[in-house]
Design brief:
The protein is α+β, with helices and mostly antiparallel strands. It has one domain: 4-Layer Sandwich (Deoxyribonuclease I, Chain A), CATH 3.60.10.10. The chain contains six helices and 14 strands. Strands 1, 2, 3, 4, 5, 11, 13 and 14 form an eight-stranded mixed beta sheet that branches. The chain has a six-stranded mixed beta sheet with strand order 6-7-8-9-12-10. Strand 4 and strand 5 form a beta hairpin.
């Protein structure tokens, strides 16, 4: 296999109808068969482990992380076909808001060598782009510190709550330094995406009830390709964008699945 398949999905915590949504997520995850998927708004605590429930029986290892102190914590998770060598949670700046966001990092024992994966979920409010700018700077610094340039290009996925033209996404794409050093991650959908790219859509009844603008806010990024051609985006498309066989959508978000060279 010469390609790595990576996906992302905001699972919308335990919002109803959770049991039906779980069935759809598991059904469509099985169909997609990604090597790695990043989950956002995953809950864990008091006998409930949302990421583990999604992964059960599908052959995935799970790494979960949160910076919240509640008995049931909401955070990010990585589901991986490959064993997890180590993982950590990095707190992101809150910009003076009450949000507690984080970046979850795992190093996976992949056939091509250690694979660094990062998943995050940035502040959600439309007017908090300035906070998301602080957060993406922190994300870029964390990736740089933990994924040396000579290793496999790191994969960064998540719900960034920002459209492609927003400063925070332009920063990740190397189009602005936000007043400091620049960075570059390839936005897989922007480069090789097929079909509709909107991931928060009024076509989804769970999203329509929020009366928010339709937009593409969920991403699969990769820092590549490297000198060996690893990390080149090969394909990308929306996923989890139709009801399951039970007639229920997986979440209020659609997901993204991409393939990169390995």
């Amino acid at each position: 296999m010469d390609r790595l398949r990576v996906a992302t999905l905001n699972v919308w915590n335990r919002c109803d109808p959770w049991e039906q949504r779980l069935a759809t997520i598991r059904e469509q995850l099985s169909e997609l068969g990604p090597d790695v998927i990043g989950l956002q708004e995953a809950l864990c605590g008091e006998g409930f482990d949302q990421a583990a429930a999604i992964a059960e029986g599908l052959g995935y290892h799970v790494a979960f992380g949160s910076t919240r102190g509640e008995p049931i914590q909401m955070g990010n998770a990585i589901l991986s076909r490959f064993p997890v060598l180590r993982s950590e949670v990095i707190a992101l700046p809150d910009g003076g808001t009450s949000e507690r966001r984080c970046l979850v990092h795992a190093v996976l024992d992949a056939p091509m060598g250690p694979l660094p994966v990062f998943v995050t979920h940035l502040n959600w409010k439309l007017h908090e782009g300035h906070v998301r700018c602080l957060q993406v700077r922190s994300v870029a610094d964390a990736v740089k510190a933990r994924a040396p340039i000579h290793g496999f290009p790191p994969v960064l996925v998540g719900d960034f709550n920002a459209e492609p033209g927003a400063d925070e996404i332009r920063f990740l794409g190397g189009l602005t330094g936000l007043g400091g050093p620049c960075t570059y991650f390839a936005d897989c959908f922007a480069l090789v995406g097929e079909g509709e790219g909107v991931t928060f859509s009024c076509g989804n009844p769970f999203a329509a009830q929020n009366r928010e603008p339709e937009r593409r806010i969920d991403y699969v990024f990769v820092r590549g390709p490297d000198a060996r051609g690893r990390g080149r985006p090969l394909s990308a498309r929306r996923c989890f964008d139709r009801p399951g066989t039970n007639g229920v959508f997986a979440s209020d978000h659609y997901g993204v699945v991409a393939e990169v060279s390995r």
